[in-house]
Amino acid sequence: MSADDLLATCWTTAGDTAPDQDDQRSPLNLRERVEAAGDAGFKGFGLLYADLVEAEREYGLAGIRSLFADNGIGHIELELLTDWWTEGPRRTASDALRTGLLRAAEALGARTLKIAPDVADEPWDLGAWAKDFATLAAQTEGVGARLGIEFLPWSNLKTVHDGLRLVEAAGHPAGGLIIDVWHTERAHTPPADLADVPGSRIVGVELNDADSQVVGTLFEDTVRRRRLCGEGSFDLPGIVSALRTAGFSGPWGVEILSDTHRALPVREAATAAYRSAATLLK
User: Fold this and answer.
1) Residues in Cβ contact with 24 at an 8 Å cutoff, skipping those fewer than 6 apart
2) In a domain, 119, yes or no
3) Is residue 1 part of a domain?
4) CA 249, CA 240: separation in Å to the nearest integer?
5) Of 116, 74, 111, which Cα lies nearest the Cα of 97?
6) Distance between CA atoms of 278 and 229, rounded to whole angstroms?
7) Report field, pTM of the whole predicted structure over 0.70
8) Domain count, the chain
9) What is the extent of the structural domain holding 146?
10) Which of 264, 243, 91 is nearest to 180 (CA)?
11) Spatial separation of the C-alpha atoms in residues 168 and 180, rounded to whole Å
12) CA dist 267 to 45, 71, 176, 264, Å?
């Protein structure tokens, strides 16, 4: 694996499914997706836990690991843990998911475990969140991976600055940020701000593009109308330059979520996502 490797995040090869659906499982089998990603040029692959469960049933974790290796996939990312900060039945369900994700991360040699903030944007306590985040980061480090939280403009962590405040308060070296450029752009964060993020706190980056105008809610726009890199309004060269200045060197995630992308055959979708991002990074 080398600098500027590209990682197909889970939605980029998932086909006709999306985060706004009750059943988020991909209609495609894992072999079809991994082969499409590998043939396109990707060296990394992201997998949603619901799809991981299906794939483990079909191939076993050892079989999944072999499938990745056979297709040149060396960077593995697993997602998405929510409700890790709360209590009661939601926390019980979250802890069961956590156990499954950590077990799989260890077995697959995963690089990254991705978690979410509170999309309901409820009141929250930084100290309590930092303590829970540090615990989870330590558990993730224990299985050989890093923990990345993805800030979202409609959540309690709206900006890169909000996310950094949490991970710095937690203070664990295995914890950091997933920086999705869609979210930095929609939060109106200038690329120069990204250059100031400590490189050690950038666990992952996700590249994509979009039109200048938001259509519908931010969540609707991010799920239905993302564009391939270079086909929208984002200053992607400026963003990439800023992230390199910060010290990030890859692998670079590519996360394309749109009605148009979902309708494509998976090989066509993976190839388009790879080529547009690879052109950007040249």
Assistant:
1) 17, 18, 48, 50
2) yes
3) no
4) 10
5) 116
6) 9
7) yes
8) 1
9) 6-281
10) 243
11) 19
12) 14, 14, 32, 8
147: β partners:
113, 175
Amino acid at 39: D
| Residues paired with 76 in a beta bridge | 45
CB atoms within 10 A of CB 109: 15
- Of 273, 271, 185, whose CA–CA distance to 233 is shortest? 185
Are 174 and 146 contacting, i.e. CB atoms less than 8 angstroms apart? yes
Give the span between the Cα atoms of 132 and 117, in whole angstroms.
12
Q: Model confidence over 91-124: pLDDT tens digits?
A: 999 999 999 999 999 999 999 999 999 999 999 9
Q: Write the CATH number for 65.
A: 3.20.20.150
Helix axes 30-40, 49-70, angle to 10 degrees: 50
Alpha-helical runs (H) found in the chain: 30-40, 49-70, 88-108, 126-142, 160-170, 181-186, 191-195, 218-224, 236-246, 259-262, 266-281
Q: Is 163 within a domain?
A: yes
Q: Is the dihedral of CA 263, 252, 244, 170 positive or negative?
A: positive
Tens-binned pLDDT, residue by residue, of the chain (282 aa): 666 899 999 999 999 999 999 999 999 999 999 999 999 999 999 999 999 999 999 999 999 999 999 999 999 999 999 999 999 999 999 999 999 999 999 999 999 999 999 999 999 999 999 999 999 999 999 999 999 999 999 999 999 999 999 999 999 999 999 999 999 999 999 999 999 999 999 999 999 999 999 999 999 999 999 999 999 999 999 999 999 999 998 899 999 999 999 999 999 999 999 999 999 998
Structure token pair of residue 8: 């197909």
- Whether 261 is covered by a domain: the verdict is yes
Report how far apart the first and last C-alpha atoms of the chain are (Å, whole number). 17
Is residue 10 within 8 A of residue 261, CB to CB? The reply is no
